[in-house]
Write a structure and sequence with these properties.
The protein has 11 helices and 13 strands. It is of the alpha+beta class and 382 residues long. The chain folds into 2 domains: 201 residues, Ribosomal Protein S5, domain 2 (2-Layer Sandwich); 171 residues, GHMP kinase, C-terminal domain (Alpha-Beta Plaits), CATH 3.30.70. Strand 4 and strand 5 form a beta hairpin. The protein binds alpha-D-galactopyranose.
Length: 382
């Protein structure tokens, strides 16, 4: 968490609202492996990071509520009674969505003033939206003593995303952001919504994130379409979710679905298995296997599930050419955002320069390299 960001948000809040706020930090997340498995009741392996959203908030005596996005210097004033999603609302819909979903549960939210800012690049696949939703759910719960558990809060955040941002996401992002554990990744069972923390130490290797700086406009609808395919296949198999399916099951309904649908469902089944193998390899300190699983995951995401793009494929191919990188894959929903790479620590700087140059040459635009620390979840800033 950045102290500078906390200071800026607090400063802006005090200047505008002349009172002392409650301060909350809510992190973004990475995901080691297990992509598009969450809404299939499957497994994922995310971790909260040291970057995210800082929120300053207090109750207000006025009859409107205010949310100020410091990064873009945009103010949203709204009536707390049953707020509706805005067309092209962007960040506003996450805030309105959380307020509305709290009210749907019969929780009484009063008017508030708030300022927030973040240091996760938007669209990088690091879940800035889940961080924002969680920051408000957590802060409003505290401020108005709503008595919600963290599990209830993340479901509210998820519903805000479904109903106000229109993305039928799973629970991984909100879970990781809320429940993150320092220096650990969480082996998350998305059916029971419970996780087990794994201490992460890749020895002489570390994680490198490379942001393709690409965000496709249609990524939301493409995401929802994928989810529909998974649900259709589950219905045909008469199971609750693809977590319960095997390749053999899929073969039995091959005639009833298209080849594309078959490949997508197969990807989910295989990715789910990879998460289990990944967690075992961590326990056995088998770093080479971790790398192989990352490459396999990318292959599936790119050729079967079809959520990669040219820039991400290029970044993963560049990693493959470097024997100091054990594995790499696109991360998050896809169609842009970051790749996650497992790279030898002492080659980090050199490869960073190399990939920045080659990406620029190939696409005539820049990518960005960064590192993250695995950190604690949503919390009050002292
Ligand atoms: C997005 C969604 C998550 C998850 C990932 C893909 O980040 O919000 O719920 O489905 O994509 O793994």
């Amino acid at each position: 968490m950045s102290k500078k960001l906390v200071k800026e948000v607090k400063g802006s809040f005090k200047e505008q609202f002349k009172t002392k706020p409650l301060m909350v930090f809510s992190p973004g997340r990475i995901n080691l492996i297990g992509e598009h498995t969450d809404y299939n009741d499957g497994f994922a392996f995310p971790a909260a990071i040291n970057k995210g959203i800082v929120l300053a908030i207090s109750k207000s005596e006025l009859s409107v509520s205010k949310a100020y996005a410091l990064n873009n210097e945009e103010l949203c004033e709204f009536n707390i009674e049953n707020p509706k999603p805005l067309e092209d609302g962007g960040w506003r819909n996450y805030v309105l969505g959380v307020v509305a979903e709290l009210q749907k549960l019969g929780k009484e939210v009063g008017n508030f003033n708030s300022v927030f800012a973040g240091n996760i690049p938007v669209g990088a696949g690091l879940s800035s939206s889940a961080a924002l939703e969680n920051s408000f759910a957590f802060a409003l719960n505290k401020l108005f003593e709503l008595g919600l558990t963290k599990n209830e809060m993340i479901l509210i955040s998820q519903k805000a995303e479904h109903n106000y941002a229109g993305v039928k996401c799973g629970i991984m992002d909100q879970y990781a952001s809320m429940f993150g554990v320092k220096k650990s990744a969480l082996l998350l069972d998305c059916r029971t919504v419970e996780s087990q923390p794994y201490k992460i130490d890749f020895k002489e290797y570390k994680l490198m994130l490379i942001n393709s700086n690409v965000k496709h406009d249609l990524s939301e609808s493409a995401y929802n379409e994928r989810r529909e395919v998974c649900e259709k296949v589950s219905r045909l198999l008469q199971i609750d979710a693809l977590r319960d399916a095997s390749k053999e099951d899929l073969d039995k309904i091959k005639e009833e679905i298209t080849e594309e649908e078959f490949q997508k469902a197969l990807y989910v089944i295989q990715e789910n298995k990879r998460v289990k193998l990944f967690s075992e390899a961590i326990q056995e300190n088998d770093i080479n296997t971790l790398g192989k699983l990352l490459y396999q995951s990318h292959e599936g995401l790119s050729t079967k599930y079809k959520v990669s793009c040219e820039e991400l494929d290029f970044l993963v191919d560049s990693a493959k050419e470097n024997s100091n990188i054990l594995g790499a894959r696109m991360m998050g929903g896809g169609f842009g955002g970051c790749t996650i790479n497992l790279i030898l620590k002492r080659d980090f700087k050199r490869f960073e320069k190399e990939v920045l140059d080659s990406f620029q040459k190939k696409f005539g635009k820049s990518c960005a390299v960064f590192k993250v620390k695995l950190s604690k979840g949503t919390r009050i800033v002292p």
